[in-house]
Amino acid sequence: MSAQRPLAAFLVAGVVQALPAWAAQEPAAPAGLKLPELAVTVGSGETAQALPATLQILVLLTLLTLAPALVIMVTSFTRILIVLSFTRSALGTNQIPPNMVLVGIALFLTVFTMAPVWQAVNEDAIQPYLKNELGYETAAERGVRPVREFMLRQTPESDLALFVRLGNMPRPETPEDIPTYVVVPAFMVGELKRAFTMGFMIFIPFVVIDMVVATTLMSMGMMMMPPVVISLPCKILLFVLVNGWQVVIESVVTSFH
User: Fold this and answer.
1) Contact 85, 102 (CB under 8 A)
2) pLDDT tens digit string along 96-143?
3) Deepest in the core among 137, 228, 239, 249, taking most CB within 10 A?
4) Residue 86 lies in a domain
5) How many CB atoms lie within 10 A of CB 78?
């Protein structure tokens, strides 16, 4: 056992001494194989309006990262999803339709309602920029303009005044004087207010059905039977007969016009 320890120490010492020589050797490439060279340079563009490809990729990745937040904050997605969720709650059907179905419907209705805005952004900003007719700063300014107009059209003046007052800013003379960081939260508050108002209107007929069923069961002396056993099929039947989903979707889409 004592003879093995000096031998192990000798082997370890030999490996340690050989490591610098191995590290100094350059790896030999296979015969006939040429390794590509990669060089990274930092310089100025040919024109003042040219945006380097690296920055373009960085901007694209940033937009993709912020896409869910942008969809929620500056589009019709929030109002549509809240109204659909209120409809499901008013029906009393637990998780039917599922959340994924409601989110999918809200997403495609958002694409439908926001199509004119996206078309304006594409025609005024994206296509001229891709054709090198605009600089990226001008393109960004033109691209934000249709979205701002949409948000300002849907935002009550009281909500805009609230955030202008909270920001201790002077009273704006025109809508163009309102910064975008003021328009976005005001738009969100207005969307929540309008969505809850529509949800309240949707709840009223279903609450009436619950009251009628509960009163009928009480008058018949059937106090041990839960009213939801009778009211739920009645609400579903009424909703189907009046084509409720079509009515709700038509109401929420036309509310943006």
Assistant:
1) yes
2) 888 899 999 998 999 899 888 888 888 888 788 777 777 777 877 888
3) 239
4) yes
5) 20
